[in-house]
Specification:
alpha/beta, 6-stranded parallel sheet, 12 helices, 42% helix
Length: 367
């Protein structure tokens, strides 16, 4: 039996994708599957599975994106014909741009043989964007047709699962998130020589990741002349006219470097404000909770709802433009009950999520 994992956006093992692939690799070995990765990059070699670079990179130029749809159809259609998918094989699709997913969907439609077992990750609610909604409905139709009305949707949010159940006839499952951080991280409590309070915003900064909220926060910090440094991905330099109160970190962190930043920083901020986060969760949020790390999140998000559920409303920010971060940090650090509540949430999360929980759920679904 083969498990084809289609991951168009995979670049390297430094981020969540690497942890995800490691989990699938362990699952495949344990359950007698041959894991094959299909992606747009091939810069990591592992003897345990085959890695096929057949998906064109997600080019920023719209014309090239359209051209790449046809390149992808050619490449993937040939791949399907060379690797005859049989009844027991599984195809798991996760992520990719709309152009890449359209190319994959068309390839499946052109493929003469039907494939019974197709599983599609659906992590973002597209209903409010008409174009994306139509594209997603086409992708779902194509994959469902190819799988003889047997398409299964996977998501990682209870709220999104409920919405999908209301809208579509497809079966969907809420999956555990495999990439937890180790629970025995020892936090660095020593003060840095400049006495700055360091705040970290992990990952890329985009519009949906709350860049407007970050600008509000920085303006507030500068007006109050607060001794705060916000650590930001170096790729985001162009977004800031002033570098005051900002420290840039490299974009491609190793896993050890990534964990080290969790140790050294006073608090994590996730100022996400896109409406999709009402039902969409965050891997970084889950990593924070899995080690009992304090994290500030925006109100009206799935992460805020989760914190409130566990009595941690003090970690929810209702207006990033008005928050006094120094006072906020002092308040939550002095609140011993808050840390106890966070540890309680952590204990439940590490039971619900993680490598073993993910493998167990996937085995149940694949039966």
């Amino acid at each position: 039996m083969r498990l084809f994992f289609i991951l168009p956006g995979f670049v390297n093992f430094s981020g969540h994708d690497g942890a995800f692939i490691n989990t699938l690799n362990t699952f495949a070995k344990t359950n007698n599957y041959k894991l094959e990765i299909i992606s747009s990059e091939n810069n990591y070699v592992n003897i345990d599975y085959d890695h096929h670079k057949i998906i064109p990179d997600n080019n920023k130029n719209i014309f090239l994106k359209v051209i790449n749809i046809f390149v992808l159809i050619k490449n993937f259609f040939n791949f399907l014909n060379l690797n005859k998918i049989n009844y027991d094989d599984r195809i798991l699709i996760d992520g990719g741009s709309y152009y890449q997913q359209i190319g994959l969907a068309l390839s499946f439609l052109l493929y003469r043989n039907k494939i019974k077992n197709i599983y599609l990750y659906y992590r973002i609610d597209f209903e409010k964007n008409f174009t994306k909604k139509i594209v997603m409905q086409f992708i779902l139709f194509s994959l469902n047709y190819t799988s003889k009305n047997n398409l299964i949707i996977l998501t990682d949010s209870d709220a999104l699962s409920d919405l999908l159940s209301q809208r579509y006839k497809y079966i969907n499952y809420v999956m555990p998130i495999p990439h937890l951080l180790t629970n025995n991280i020892n936090f660095d409590k020593t003060k840095n020589k400049n006495s700055y309070i360091k705040i970290w915003l992990p990952g890329p900064i985009r519009k949906d990741k709350g860049i407007s909220n970050l600008h509000y926060l920085l303006k507030n910090i500068r007006q109050k002349k607060s001794n705060i440094k916000i650590l930001i991905n170096e790729k985001s330099k162009v977004e800031f006219s002033s570098l005051e109160n900002i420290e840039f970190i490299k974009s491609n962190l190793s896993r050890d470097e990534y964990i080290s930043l969790f140790k050294k920083n006073n608090i994590i901020i996730l100022p996400y404000n896109d409406p999709s986060y009402k039902t969409r969760t965050s891997g970084i949020f889950l990593e924070c909770i899995s080690i009992g790390k304090k994290v500030l999140v925006s109100s009206n998000t799935y992460m805020a709802d989760e914190l409130i559920k566990y009595g941690l409303s003090d970690l929810v920010v209702y207006d990033w433009s008005k928050i006094d971060l120094i006072t906020k940090i002092k308040e939550i650090n002095l609140n011993k009950n808050l840390q106890l509540l966070l540890f309680n949430m952590r204990d439940e999360y590490i039971t619900k999520h993680g490598d073993l929980a993910y493998q167990k759920k996937l085995k149940e679904i694949f039966k």
